[in-house]
Specification:
The chain is built from five helices and seven strands. The chain is of the alpha/beta class and 162 residues long. It has a seven-stranded mixed beta sheet. Helix 1 (16-35) runs parallel beside helix 2 (52-62). The model has no long low-confidence stretch (mean pLDDT 90).
Amino acid sequence: MQPPTLNGEPIAKMNDGHLQHMRVGGGAGLGVKYLARQDASTVAMLGSGGMARPYLQAFCAVRPIKRVKVYSPNRDNRELYANEMMERLGLEVEPVDSAREAVRGVDIISSCTSSMVPTIDPDWLESGMHITNLGPFELSEELLQRADVVIRQGIAGAAGCR
């Protein structure tokens, strides 16, 4: 095998979108590993798009996830996500009809949306929840004020509630 050329000629092509999803999902997984309760096993997934998949995969790599409730305003998308992730990860994934229903009683809340407004009402928070988000507008200042720990990295972050 010859060494790579030093003339700027491409030697590989990679799909950046796939790598980007893995990188950001991995960061969310590290947040869960180091900040969520050790016994965290239930997840609310708000959003069912491309980032919701690597986020859940990362959570499963660091915690014994048993059950997921997924909400997306598009019923077909949340059902597709639920079926795909049940098959891929072998866990119970239930599509639900509201963000509130998804968040009720879970250990980890993950907001993977492109929303320009907060996706989680601070009144929904329960003691010990870990919250992770993708976009800069998904968590309100009121929600962040209620958290014990807030870590902001770029536009995404994580919070933990008393």
